[in-house]
Amino acid sequence: MNKKQSKKKIKTKKKKNYSEKTAFANLEKTPNTLNIPKKSSSGIPKYVADRMARRIFFTAGIPTILGMSVFVVSYIIVTRNIAEIPPSSTIAISALFFLLGLAGLSFGILSASWDKEPGSFFGIENIPMNIQRAKAAFKPATQNFEDKS
């Protein structure tokens, strides 16, 4: 069975022909100004980010490297018959170093001073202030979400 196909009327659209003068007239009228976006001050300043990176390297990087090296040292000790190390203790010690690195990551971010001059060596006095800043950063977003509900 063949279906009957309806014939659609095809309308031909006329193309408009523009002369060169009218086609390129708008190009000459546009101003040659660059739209440079304004820098917003809501981000983390570079000197604070560098300070955070240094603290993160020491408080998170070193424990993470130690956590990975536990496997290598354990392997060397077991293969050379220096001592018999159960695999569960290797995993437990490695996990301890990785958790220490995770805590160091949080500490490195929260203990960095936002002042131009670097703060104290450990920066413990900056932690409560930085927690308040983090809460304030998320506060407008949560208020807007609650208003829409």
Would you write up a description of this structure?
The chain is an all-alpha fold. The protein has a domain at 46-144. It has five helices and no strands. It has helices spanning 20-23, 25-29, 46-79, 87-110, 127-148. Helix 3 runs antiparallel to helix 4. The chain is extended. The two termini are 56 Å apart. The model has no long low-confidence stretch (mean pLDDT 79).
Q: Keyphrases for this structure?
A:
mainly alpha; extended
Write a concise synopsis of the structure shown.
With 149 residues, the protein is mostly helical. It has five helices and no strands.
Task: Itemize the secondary structure elements and their pairings.
Elements: H1 20-23, H2 25-29, H3 46-79, H4 87-110, H5 127-148
Helix pairs in contact: 3-4
Which descriptor suits the 3D outline? extended
Enumerate how many helices there are, as a single number: 5
Distance linking N and C termini? 56 Å
Main pleated sheet: none
